Amino acid sequence: SCRGGFCCAQQPQIILLKEGTDASQGKAQLVSNINACTAVADAVRTTLGPRGMDKLIHDDKGNTTISNDGATIMKLLDIVHPAAKILVDIAKSQDSEVGDGTTTVVLLAAEFLKEAKPFIEDGVHSQNLIRSYRTASYLAIDKIKELAVSIEGKSLEEKKSLLAKCAATTLSSKLIGGEKEFFASMVVDAVLAIGNDDRLNLIGIKKVPGGNMRDSFLVNGVAFKKTFSYAGFEQQPKKFLNPKILLLNIELELKSEKENAEIRLSDPLQYQSIVDAEWNIIYDKLDKCVQSGAKIVLSRLAIGDLATQYFADRDIFCAGRVTEEDLQRVAAATGGTVQTSVNNIIDEVLGSCEVFEEKQVGNERFNIFSGCPSGQTATIVLRGGADQFIEEAERSLHDAIMIVRRALKNSTVVPGGGAIDMEISRFLRLHARTIAGKSQLFINSYAKALEVIPRQLCDNAGYDATDVLNKLRQKHASGEGANYGVDINTGGIADSFANFVWEPAVVKINAINAATEAACLILSVDETVKNPKSESAQGEAAASAMAGRGRGGAAFRGRGGRGMRRR
């Protein structure tokens, strides 16, 4: 018998993890993870939809980013909570896979968890929830596929307008939503220009501050900023019709010898011959460039003043230090190949285009190659007032470009504006009634979670969500309102399909898949173990790093790391 707990105190406590380790377990852990995810979702919640707000994020380097793109915001929020990081990952995966719907994914995942929370608190085992959620997501995805409308087999004109509708839907929630028709058609042209080869880097986006958004234009080819140039550049002609283009990866200038090169001369006169040899080498290179018949010479490395003047005398345009990706784009567009030597330049490696000109855009000069034969590149030159604004415009266009690419490939679309979400929600509710047991409740809660999208759309536009959702539920329940979603302009409901609020089915399928996976992943975690970084170890590491750099190691060690930057 144990009096007053005396003998129990004698038994040694088992120490498994080093002290300071934070291990939280069980139901409380699950609930706190769910709360963390809800908090993350609240950060991006208001950015959803055409009336969504933007976030201004100020990072430690002092850069400010204004963004409406869920993935961008999630990346910039420095989230340390381990469970909430999962939401950041799904936003990123949605961004890289489909490009749009990043906010949707985060919202759905958080909402699934929120719906699961009361069940967890009531003691339901999380595996039961996970099983039901998985089933529900399969059913939902089948339903999407069934409701999707194909745009295959239409003429090019029809397809263009359909794709522009998809792009406009994506852009309507962004900062440049006011000009969505203008940008949507630009994006569609750019995507169709690169054809089936869908390397994204073939669509270049160049940013030039100044002017307004309507001054942005699409170049059917390649455009890049005028590069660093030497004397003689202004004497070169700035416009060519059907020129041949030579792309190089060598420098056309006098190269200094390696610092330890040594030449012994017995006669001072021999020195001249060595200098001449250097000059002959470069003149030989330049001659070969001219003989190739090329009228435009672009190089990845520097083209020196001698070469610039030489080309200018022969009416040839040259640009050195062209960035790698611009050079690759020019190569793809003009059908040329980048050469690493000037020997044996044959016609096959030269590119060509219909028009080359140098044009002033705002404050910058741009070299523009248009009317390219393979036509597999496009460049969008963006104009706008503030730098942040242009950056956000670029992110928005990236989303739109991805969407149009996806819609081209998997040519099925679903109605947007929360219509498809309501329809799946109705379908799952009906389905839940046919199931016996607890999973009926869980699938019902999944269905309820899907309504977060239309609800958030209303909230962000400042309408009464309860009202609109009731109307929507009634419309969808009547059977013929499958395409009805929130009408942002009037605060009522409208046929999304007729209003051309469309999105590719891939976006929704991917969103539901990713959100369900994330929710299941978070529900299946019931313990978090956090190992403390021991103070002493950190101190020692810093000290040894200091000592390793040579003197002064000991001095810092005594001062407890005063040499570190103060946070």
Folded structure, characterized:
This protein is α+β, with helices and mostly antiparallel strands. Among the domains are: 22-150 and 415-524, GROEL, domain 1; 239-352, GroEL, CATH 3.50.7. The chain is 49% helix and 16% strand. The protein has helices at residues 6-10, 26-45, 70-76, 82-97, 102-121, 126-147, 156-172, 180-194, 269-291, 305-313, 324-334, 387-409, 419-433, 439-450, 452-461, 465-477, 505-523, 535-548, 553-558, and strands at 22-25, 55-58, 64-67, 149-150, 203-209, 217-219, 221-225, 239-241, 244-248, 296-299, 317-319, 338-339, 351-352, 355-361, 364-370, 378-384, 412-415, 484-487, 492-495, 502-504, 527-530. The strands form seven sheets. Strands 9, 10, 11, 12 and 13 form a five-stranded mixed beta sheet that branches. A four-stranded antiparallel beta sheet has the order 7-15-14-8. Strand 10 (296-299), helix 10 and strand 11 (317-319) form a beta-alpha-beta unit. Helix 13 packs across helix 16 (465-477). The longest helix has 23 residues, at 269-291. Mean pLDDT is 81; it is low at 550-567.
How far the N terminus sits from the C terminus, by CA atoms, comes to 56 Å
The major beta sheet can be summarized as: 5 strands, mixed
Which segments are poorly predicted (pLDDT under 50) over 5 or more consecutive residues? 550-567
CATH architecture of the domain at 22-150 and 415-524: Orthogonal Bundle
Q: Structural class of the helix and strand makeup?
A: alpha+beta
Helix content: 40-55%
Oligomer: single chain
- Number of helices, where a helix is a run of at least 4 consecutive DSSP H or I residues: 19
What fold name goes in the CATH topology slot of the domain at 22-150 and 415-524?
GROEL, domain 1
* Global mean pLDDT: 81
Provide the β-strand percentage band: 15-25%
CATH level-4 homologous superfamily of the domain at 22-150 and 415-524? GroEL-like equatorial domain
- Globally, the shape reads globular
What's the total count of β strands?
21
Radius of gyration over C-alpha positions, nearest whole angstrom? 31 Å
Q: What's the CATH first level of the domain at 22-150 and 415-524? A: Mainly Alpha
